[in-house]
Design a protein that fits this description.
Layout (H helix, E strand, L loop, with lengths): L9 E2 L6 E4 L3 H11 L3 E4 L6 H5 L2 H8 L3 E7 L6 E2 L5 E2 L1 E5 H10 L6 E8 H4 L18 E9 L4 E5 L4 E16 L4 H4 L31 E7 L3 E5 L4 E18 L9 H16 L1
Parallel strand pairs: 1-12, 2-3
Antiparallel strand pairs: 3-13, 4-7, 4-8, 5-6, 8-9, 9-14, 10-14, 11-12, 11-13, 11-14
This protein binds 2-oxoglutaric acid.
Length: about 280
C-alpha cells in the first residue's frame, strides 16, 4: 500500500460501492440492510424540496441571521480537541455570517463546519424541505442532522453504532469505508474514553512506526454526488472529505438490529456506551 502521498488504499474484496436506483422500502430492508454493505441509492431525494430549493440565498431567507453553533478547526480536520477536554471546539455565529464565510472561500486561520447539527432543535424551519426516508421504521428512528461546510473539510475515521443514510444536496463528498472486521488494523482509541469510536491513525499521513498494522488496511472508496444518498451500516468505519465550495448534506440515524451488538465491534461499542453513561 502506498502510504506516502495521497491515500491510495488497497480495496476490500467488495471493492466498490454499488449504486442502486430508488429501491423500495421492502428491497432496502431485505437486500441492503441485511447485506451489511454500504450502498449508494440514486433518484430517491430528487423530489424533496431541498434538492431544488437549497441555495445559499434560500437558506439565508429561511434561517436568517439566527445564532448557530459551528465546529472550528485550524487544519480542516474536524475532531475532538484535547485542549477542550476532548469535546469539539465550537463557535457561535450568525447563520448569514457563516454562509458569507463559505462563499468567500479564502485561506483562513480557522475553518468552520456546521457538523451534525440536530435539525429538529436547531433548524426546524428547514424540516418541511426534507422527508424521513420510508426505509426507516418510525420506531427505530433516532436523529436527523444537517451538515454544511466547505471543500476540504474532513470528518476523520470513526464508526457509529447506528445505521446511517447520508443524503447529499450540494457539492460532493469523498467517502472512505473500512468494514468492521478491519478494526484491529485501525487502532481505535480506548473503549473507555470519549473517543472510543475513533481511530488514532491520521490515514492521510499514517505513522507506520506507531501503527504498523494499518499498512494492511483495505478500504472502499466512493464519491457521493448531489442527489444521492449513501447507506453506511452501523459499525462501518468511515472518513468523509467534503469536496466543492458549498457542501450541504442531511444524515438520518436509526437503531440497528440488536444482533449487531454481539459482534466484536458491537460489544466494544456497548462497553464504550456504558463508560460514557458512568462518566457523564
Ligand atoms: O459528512 C461528513 O463530514 C461526515 C458524515 C458522517 O460521519 C456521518 O454521517 O456519520
Amino acid at each position: 500500500m502506498n502510504v506516502s502521498g495521497e491515500n491510495n488504499f488497497d480495496q476490500t474484496s467488495v471493492n466498490q460501492v454499488e449504486r442502486i436506483h430508488k429501491v423500495t422500502p421492502e428491497e432496502f430492508k431485505r437486500k441492503i440492510v441485511s447485506s451489511r454493505q454500504p450502498v449508494i441509492i440514486t433518484g430517491k431525494i430528487a423530489s424533496w424540496k431541498a434538492s431544488s430549493l437549497w441555495s445559499v440565498d434560500y437558506l439565508n431567507t429561511i434561517v436568517g441571521n439566527k445564532e448557530i453553533n459551528v465546529h472550528v478547526s485550524k487544519n480542516k480536520i474536524f475532531t475532538y480537541d484535547p485542549e477542550a477536554d476532548f469535546t469539539f471546539c465550537s463557535r457561535k455565529m450568525k447563520f448569514t455570517d457563516f454562509t458569507d464565510w463559505i462563499l468567500q472561500e479564502k485561506k483562513a486561520d480557522e475553518y468552520y463546519y456546521l457538523q451534525q447539527s440536530p435539525m429538529k432543535t436547531s433548524f426546524p424551519e428547514l424540516l418541511p424541505d426534507i422527508e424521513t426516508p420510508d426505509y426507516i421504521g418510525k420506531a427505530l428512528f433516532i436523529l436527523t442532522s444537517l451538515w454544511i461546510g466547505t471543500g476540504g473539510n474532513i470528518s476523520p475515521l470513526h464508526y457509529d453504532s447506528v445505521e446511517n443514510l447520508l443524503c447529499q444536496f450540494r457539492g460532493r463528498k469523498r467517502v472512505l469505508l473500512f468494514e468492521p472486521k478491519q478494526t484491529p488494523l485501525l487502532y481505535p482509541f480506548s473503549a473507555y474514553s470519549t473517543r472510543g469510536h475513533m481511530s488514532q491513525v491520521n490515514i492521510d499521513q499514517p505513522d507506520i512506526d506507531k501503527f504498523p498494522k494499518f499498512e494492511k488496511a483495505k478500504c472502499i472508496e466512493c464519491i457521493l454526488e448531489p442527489g444521492e444518498m449513501i447507506f453506511i451500516p452501523a459499525f462501518w468505519w468511515h472518513q468523509v472529505y467534503s469536496l466543492d465550495q458549498l457542501n450541504i448534506a442531511v444524515s438520518f440515524w436509526w437503531n440497528t438490529n440488536f444482533k449487531q451488538f454481539f459482534t466484536p465491534l458491537g460489544r466494544r461499542s456497548v462497553a464504550n456506551m456504558i463508560w460514557e453513561i458512568i462518566n457523564n
